[in-house]
Every structure is written in C-alpha cells, then in structure tokens.
Amino acid sequence: MNNQIQFIRTPDDAFKNLEDYPYTENYMVLEGGVRMHYVEEGKGNEKTIFLLHGQPSWSYLYRHMIKYFVEAGYHVIAPDLIGFGKSDKPVDPKYHTYTNHVLWMSEFVQNLGINNAISFMQDWGGLIGLRVLAEQPEWLNRLVVSNTALAEVKGIGKYLYPVAMKLMTTLSSNPTIEKFASNKTFGNWSGYFAKAKQPNIGLIMQILTNRSLSQPEMNAYNAPFLDQQFMAGPRTMPQIIATDINEVNDAWKKLKKWEKPVLTLFSDNDPFLAGKGYDTQFQTNFKGAKGQPHITISNASHFLQEDQAKVLVENILNWEEVLQTHSIL
C-alpha cells in the first residue's frame, strides 16, 4: 500500500440526525491516504475498551454499548473499518484484502498508543482484531470474543477450505434478500453481496437481529452506502474470508502463547456460528480462557449488540469486577 488509494467519502449530510448516535466524529489518516473514523467517548477514564465491528455494519452497531460503558466509567473507542461507516471507502475491490484491513487496524491501534486495554470483537472485528493482537500483544490485557471465528487450517485443508468457501458462493446462484432471509447460509450471504445490484444493509441487519429495528435504525445502517460505488467493502468481505491462511495460522501460534484473560459471549440464535463450536475453539486455544465465566447470550442473533446490548455490558462489567477482585487487572 505504498501508493495513494482511490477512495470516496460518504457526505456528512448522510449521517445527520441518526437515531441514538450523538457521537462526535474523530478521524485518523492511515497508509494509502485513507481516513479512518472512530468514536471516542469517556476520554480521561482509566479503563479503555475497543469495540470492533464487522461486515456490513459500522460503529452505529455499538451505539447503546458505548453509552453503557461510558456510564460505567470507561474510555470507549469504536472505529469504523475502512470501507464502512464514516471511514473512507476505496472504490477498487483490490484494496479490500484481508491483509490490508489488518494493516489499517494495526496502524490505528499503534498510532493511538493505548496498551493494556480490553476489546470486544465481533464478526470481522475478531478476524481482523485477533491478528492485530498477535502482532501487538501489549495492546490488550483482556479480551472478549463474540460471534466471530479465526480459522486455523492445516494440511490439505489449506487447499480445500478456499475452494469450499468459493463453491458455496457459486452454488448459491443469484440469491435475493428473500432467499437469504429464508435460508441463512454463508453461500447465500456471500452470493447476495457479490451479486445484488444494491445490497440493502438495513434489511440485512434486521434479518440477523431478533428484535425489530425501527426504520430510522435501518436507515442508519444504509447511510454510509449511498449507491453502488460505495459498496466495495461490504461486497468484497465475504470473498476474502478464506484468504491469508498462512498468516492466520501464524497468528494462532502467537495467540496460543497469550495468557491474558479471555471471555466468550456468543449468541444462542446466530445462524452462522451458534452451536458449532466456535466459542469452544477460543476457550480451548486461549490459555487465559480457562476457568472464565463464558456464557451463551439468550435471545440474540448474529448482531447481538442490537439484541442484548445491556446484557453484554453487564456480563463484561461483572467479569471485570471478578478479575479486579482477584488482582488479575
């Protein structure tokens, strides 16, 4: 990423009067000249928590959790991935590589210079954030993973995994949003974002949320993506999930040596991940996950931040109190 990246920027007017999102913009210019947006609230509070989102959401997903954490005395940082939310959006899909997203987030974390923080990582927030942690182990001293996965693939699986993921997209044909709603598979998800003329992000968020989102809330999820040219990020993300296998395996080698506390908070109703052992993978591979109060969040779909924001925050705060009591923090 030595050259300047061609990007577009969603006009500020698109974000006027968003429902429950009164937060001031903050920006950081990263390599390639792209500008990353982030919410920063509770500055000056002793404990810092990073809230990392995935695809196709943005920091709006954390609007309620931000409020609850600030009320509890936390310094909260919630960035928008490049290509999402209020961050700049490279037009050419070639820039939306797994490696680039890790590099951008790594630079963001490094430039902030905050260590010994906590992070809540969901969806691509985990796929990206965990690789950042592997390279910057002092960034966090506790970690919460939720509805995410970081595939460790070895042997012949290194060759079969990308083929299988691509095949699922191909076999999905030309899925409509109605088809995805009735059959929430990765293939239909990936196929919809690859082939839909203009993906409806707000409706996708509703399909993967148990509670009913208001129209203003769905509008807020659509706000960053005014038309087709803004969509390279959300479209590309499902296509790159099976890339960087060697780098992911290397990250796991380092993460398995990381001994700080780890908590899993997965949903009971996530159509992609619930009941498939992704939470136990983290519980097994992280030394610091042993003996922690892992729970399954009830009545929550993939975007559990929408369904159970207060419950998530309460569980994290209770966990923090236990760690403090035992002088682990």
Automatic annotation (TrEMBL):
This one is known as Alpha/beta fold hydrolase
Highest rank taxon of the organism: Bacteria
For the AB hydrolase-1 domain, which residue ranges apply? 48-307
| Keyword set, alphabetical order | Hydrolase
A GO molecular function term, named singly, is:
hydrolase activity
Which InterPro entries does this chain map to?
AB_hydrolase_1, AB_hydrolase_fold, Epox_hydrolase-like
Question: Which species is the source of this protein?
Answer: Flammeovirga agarivorans
